[in-house]
Write a structure and sequence with these properties.
This protein is an alpha/beta fold and about 230 residues long. It folds into 2 domains: about 60 residues; about 150 residues, no CATH class. Helix content is about 50%, strand content about 15%. The protein contains 8 helices and 5 strands. Helix 6 runs parallel beside helix 7. The N and C termini lie far apart (about 100 Å). InterPro entries: F-box-like_dom_sf, F-box_dom. Pfam families: F-box-like (PF12937). It comes from Lentinula guzmanii. Keywords: Coiled coil.
């Protein structure tokens, strides 16, 4: 056939009829092949879905058989406390690094345990210039940490003094100033302005053990703080 094409050959009469039949038979075979390909693709997709389901079931079975489920709640709580202390960063992307929330998402048993332990919610850090939705998490941590003392770091890296979001965080934190224990506040400007409402209202800080104020990454040792 290739030589006929190269020679410019054109069939007539019965030979033309033979080529027409050959063309029809070829199309039938093509249709049969395509139908088989479609069937195999459906079968392949079905097998892939079945494999994914089996893998998910395998992970669930491994989870059920995990020795960690045999641990008593008090020991499990101690492990959680170690994992969560000073590691809850309420900033960043749509998936912030918040171990307390991550642990509570594993299973109902863990969620109940995490929700019943205020200490797991009592330490958190906020870096104003870096997080996207921190203020949504702050009330949650302040509420669930009650009545434990709270330890937190607030770093305001905005270039303008007194950013509106930082003021909101401070306002929320001031409502719980009686629970402040270890507090670190850093700002591009002198951070005393952040505490003016606290100073003005003469708030009591019965739980406070340390207060660090700093500009940028430099600690301020002699801050005028009554």
């Amino acid at each position: 056939n290739l030589s006929c094409v190269r020679a410019g050959y054109y069939p007539f009469g019965s030979e033309r009829a033979a080529y027409d039949k050959l063309l029809g038979d070829t199309q039938i075979e093509l249709d049969r092949c395509q139908k088989e390909i479609d069937r195999l693709e459906i079968l392949c997709n079905t097998l892939i879905a079945s494999k994914q389901l089996l893998q998910a079931n395998k992970r669930l079975i491994h989870s059920i058989l995990s020795p960690i489920h045999k641990l008593p709640l008090d020991l499990l709580g101690n492990i959680f406390e170690h994992l969560c202390y000073d590691r809850n960063y309420l900033y960043g992307s749509s998936l912030p690094n918040v171990p307390t929330l991550n642990l509570s998402s594993v299973c109902h048993r863990w969620r109940s345990l995490v929700s019943s332990m205020p200490i797991l919610w009592s330490t958190f850090n906020m870096i104003e210039k870096e997080f996207a939705r921190p203020h949504n998490l702050l009330p949650l941590f302040l509420g669930r940490s009650h009545p434990c003392p709270i330890d937190f770091q607030l770093h305001d890296r905005n270039e303008c003094e007194g950013s509106s979001r930082t003021s909101k965080y401070i306002s929320s934190l001031l409502l719980h100033s009686d629970r402040w224990r270890h507090v670190e506040i850093r700002s591009q400007f002198l951070p005393v302005y952040l505490l003016q409402p606290l100073i003005k209202n003469g708030a009591q800080l019965p739980s406070l053990k340390s207060l660090t104020l700093g500009m940028g990454d430099d600690e301020i040792d002699d801050t005028d703080f009554p």
